[in-house]
Design brief:
Blueprint (H helix, E strand, L loop, with lengths): L7 E5 L4 H11 L3 E6 L22 H7 L3 E4 L5 H13 L2 E4 L3 H6 L4 H7 L4 E6 L14 H7 L3 H5 L13 H24 L4 E5 H8 L1 H10 L18 E3 L5 E4 L4 H12 L3 H4 L6 H6 L1 H12 L4 H11 L3 E3 L3 H4 L3 H5 L3 E4 L5 E3 L12 E2 L9 H7 L4 H10 L6
Parallel strand pairs: 1-2, 1-4, 2-3, 4-5, 5-6, 10-12
Antiparallel strand pairs: 7-8, 8-9, 10-11
Helix pairs in contact: 1-8, 3-19, 6-9, 11-15, 18-19
Length: about 400
């Protein structure tokens, strides 16, 4: 039995952050009723909107929507809102990443919802939070999570343009934070019987993710930016390339402790007595020279040789894998990073948590638009007249 079985979550979300949080909760056993407008979550069309064939599987949408039940409601009209209200009466959590202003226009502010449903946990993800001049500003992870919080700035090595994060990266981080907040509110409701508002934002989560640098800025007034790898102050914690073009990271976080093992793997005992590199302070002072020495050494052998030597001498390191290498990684497979999608030949990415030592073997596919409208409304206790009124406005053929 998964820990959230018996929990019902209503999702009013689009794109990534809200749906991703609900996908995690669904993995953990919750039943998620995904409310979509008649045209559907625009994330459904992300592949075809870029000019590709609609026959191509929408892998990103599947990651964040697997296992849910899709309900088409037009929340701009009375029947749709009445059906939603009935669903909320039967549910434990409302999770949304709609903007505050849009929720208020629909009569779905959390104050109004909690007045009608005091048991409800109302979880809202925004770009910038519920107060301040940008409370209604559209939020995307590359902007609110990464750009506005200093993450992209700290990733720049010198005077070069910022590098974008992988798509959805910040959204998935805020999804983890949101899921944790929802679970904490559920624990409190178990004591008090009362629901509450749970807020998270891309900006706040991005600031937390960059916590070390921002804490240094707050306390000391200045934080160093990223540097070119040749000029790093921590050459034993740096990336290097083998003779066959494979990149890897040395992870010598305790420089003096890890230096002898690296020297042994390099078969360069002379480096131990080289006055330029003998101590961590020496290596820091002569960092460019030391990186050049390491570059030349690593360029002399292919990666399989370095793997053997690193493991023999217990050097701390990890490869820089491409996605193609990740999905073939024996450890990633053993750790259940990927799961089968039921009823298909495909796999997708699993959630990061296991319970009771059991790893998920498969997940249900993402739902077709509106496929569960009728069954969910009946489960929520909607009257027959209301069910039929909603179905008349749903996507044609979705019964």
């Amino acid at each position: 039995m998964r820990p959230l079985e018996g929990t019902i979550i209503v999702e009013i979300g689009a794109w990534i952050a809200g749906p991703s949080a609900c996908a995690l909760l669904c993995d953990w056993g919750a039943e998620v009723w995904k409310v979509e407008p008649p045209r559907g979550d625009p994330f459904r069309a992300v592949i075809s909107s870029q000019g590709y064939s609609s026959e191509i599987p929408n892998a990103p949408f599947t990651v964040d929507n697997r296992g849910k039940r899709s309900v088409v409601l037009d929340l701009r009209e009375g029947h749709g809102r009445a059906a939603l209200d009935q669903m909320l009466a039967k549910s434990d959590v409302l999770l949304t990443n709609m903007r505050m202003r849009s929720l208020e226009k629909l009569g779905l502010s959390c104050d109004a919802l909690l007045a009608r449903h005091p048991h409800l946990i109302c979880s809202v993800i925004s770009g910038y939070g519920s107060v301040g001049p940008d409370r209604n500003r559209p939020g995307y992870d590359i902007g609110a999570f990464a750009g506005r919080t200093g993450i992209l700035h700290q990733m720049r090595a010198g005077d070069v343009p910022p590098t974008a994060l992988p798509l959805g990266f910040g959204d998935h981080v805020v999804a983890l934070a949101t899921a944790a907040g929802v679970l904490a509110a559920m624990v409190e409701r178990g004591r008090t019987g009362r629901g509450q508002l749970v807020e998270s934002s891309l900006m706040r989560t991005g600031a937390f993710a960059l916590g070390w640098e921002l804490a240094v800025q707050l306390m000391l007034g200045k934080v160093p930016g990223a540097t070119q790898r040749i000029a790093t102050k921590t050459p034993l914690f740096n990336c290097y390339q083998s003779a066959d073009g494979q990149w890897f990271w040395l992870l010598g976080v305790e420089a003096d402790r890890h230096f002898p093992a690296l020297v042994a793997a390099l078969e360069r005992p002379d480096l131990l007595s080289d006055s330029r590199f003998a101590t961590s302070r020496d290596r820091r002072r002569n960092t460019s020279e030391f990186v050049e020495v390491l570059d030349a050494a690593f360029a002399g052998q292919p990666m399989d040789v370095w793997v053997q030597r690193f493991d023999e001498h217990r050097v701390w390191w990890e490869p820089v894998h491409s996605p193609a290498q990740v999905v073939e990684d024996e450890q990633a497979v053993a750790a259940a990073c990927f799961v089968d999608i039921e009823g298909t030949e495909f796999q997708t990415v699993s959630g990061p948590i296991d319970f009771a030592g059991e790893q998920a073997k498969s997940v249900a596919a993402a739902p077709e638009l509106g496929a569960d409208t009728e069954s969910v409304l009946r489960a929520a206790g909607c009257t027959e007249d209301l069910v039929q009124a909603v179905l008349r406005r749903a996507v044609p053929g979705q019964r």
